[in-house]
Design goal:
This protein is mostly helical. The protein is 75% helix and 0% strand. The chain contains 23 helices and no strands.
Length: 451
């Protein structure tokens, strides 16, 4: 196959240039396995160059990348549009190619100093402030369009980014091992950030939160810097937004549980459960690292929201139990009903039951602290007993030649995997297969029958 024309190659270049990092990396891996096709050779070279350029960009702009997500318009969390890193990088390559080259040499030459990358951050800040070139003007416009004074916020983030880069590898240690040394180091880093950009204290902590696997654990660092503040003191400071974020996230989790569609499937269920687990952890962090009052303010709001969340989850548990009786009717009614059952499982009831059980199953970590552990345990204990009874009846029915019972056993296996664990589900599947298998042939009887 002949090589691609220049026009087609330009189309491919445009598509690759605007593709997310994950897509570019996937293309690189796919094309690496391609043969010597002439048409693919130029595309492969283009993708490899782009992947290398993305790597250099991501290292150079590493402190900014976690806060460049979505449309950049979150009213509480500091974020910038996801396209800002790409715009910044184009501006740097156009206006400071020599410094970009120095960073490339440092990256691939094994240099450990962050100076070449931090220099690019300073050049980017200078370019945005001056706004004399089309490329840097595009960065400013994108940020201002996303939020009021967005460009000014980005400038502050660029100013403190070297401090964030320097401590990024220490953050996990600071939140997991809260020693006196870690607290002192956090306070020193905060002072360095404020010295770099006097009004950027809040921005600094937003950037740290985005670097952490669990962003709400930034409350531990804030508590260390402010020596475990009271709610009133924190709320009246510029860092009060971090308490507001926790409360807003709990409200959003409430909405997610209330709006969970039983027809949405396991993926939607797990997403809602992950949200509940996350906000339960965030609420516990707020209670632990800020001195709250149960009678007013954040403490009172948190208790009220937690009670509402617990009640909603309990309602979902009751709903799951009702759907269980519809999805596996042979579990209720004893052996006589099992023998009479010739109807196939109701696919709607099965799907809805599996969705809600997937949701409840994923709530193990938050059940105790959020206050619905008793409802969750009762549900799984009740359904576990009913599953044991149902499986025994259904296995006997399958052995008796009941085709519908085989389908119900398949449902029972899926339910067992959620009510107990995957091993329990697999055990039911093996029992179903054994019950459906034809009985072994007696060689003596077979020989006599043939004579």
């Amino acid at each position: 196959m002949p090589a691609l024309s220049q026009r087609k190659l330009e189309i491919v270049r445009t598509l690759v240039d605007t593709a997310p990092d994950a897509v570019v990396e996937g293309l690189r891996q796919a094309l690496a396995a391609a043969g010597g096709d002439a048409a693919l050779a130029s595309v492969r070279q283009l993708v490899e160059l782009e992947a290398g350029d993305r790597q250099l960009r991501n290292v150079s702009l590493a402190p900014l990348l976690p806060i460049c997500v979505g449309d950049g318009a979150d009213p509480l969390r500091l974020t910038f549009p996801a396209r800002v890193p790409g715009l910044l990088w184009r501006a740097l390559k156009a206006q400071a190619p020599a410094f970009v080259r120095n960073a490339e040499v440092a990256l691939y030459g094994g240099e450990t100093s962050a100076d070449p990358y931090d220099r690019l951050l300073r050049i980017a800040a200078k370019g945005i402030r001056a706004a004399e070139t089309r490329e840097f003007q595009a960065v400013r416009q994108a940020c201002d369009a996303a939020r009021p004074a967005g460009a000014e916020a980005l400038l502050a983030a660029l100013d403190v980014a070297p401090v964030v880069r320097r401590i990024s590898l220490k953050l996990s240690g600071w939140v997991s091992h809260q020693t006196a040394e870690a607290s002192a180091a956090a306070r020193l880093a905060y002072k360095d950030a404020v010295a770099a950009a006097p009004d950027a204290g809040t921005i600094f902590f937003h950037m740290l939160a985005a670097q952490l696997p669990k962003p709400y654990t930034v409350l531990r660092i804030i508590s260390a810097v402010m020596e475990k503040p009271t709610e009133r003191y924190l709320a009246e400071s510029e860092l009060g937004v971090f308490g507001e974020i926790v409360l807003r996230d709990v409200e959003q989790a409430l909405a997610a549980v209330a709006g969970l569609d039983p027809d949405g499937g396991a993926e939607a269920a797990r997403a809602a459960a992950a949200q509940v687990n996350r906000v339960t952890g965030a609420g516990a962090e707020l209670e632990t690292y800020v001195t709250l009052s149960r009678e007013q303010g954040w403490g009172k709001q948190l208790l009220k929201l937690r009670a509402s969340l617990s009640a909603l989850v309990e309602e979902r548990c009751d709903e799951a139990e009702t759907l269980f009786g519809q999805a596996l009717p042979s579990s209720r009614g004893g052996a006589k009903r099992a023998r009479r059952s010739d109807a196939q499982p109701d696919p709607v009831a099965v799907r809805r039951c599996l969705t809600l059980l997937a949701f409840v199953s994923e709530l193990r970590a938050s059940a105790n602290p959020a206050g619905f552990a008793a409802a969750r345990s009762r549900l799984f204990e009740t359904l576990g007993q009913e599953l044991d009874l149902a499986v025994e009846h259904l296995v006997e029915a399958v052995k008796a030649g009941d085709a519908a019972a085989q389908a119900h056993l398949a449902v029972a296996a899926d339910l067992s995997a959620l009510v107990r664990d995957e091993k329990a589900g697999e055990l039911v599947r093996r029992r179903a297969a054994a019950a459906a298998a034809p009985p072994p042939v007696d060689p003596v009887k077979s020989l006599l029958a043939g004579t």
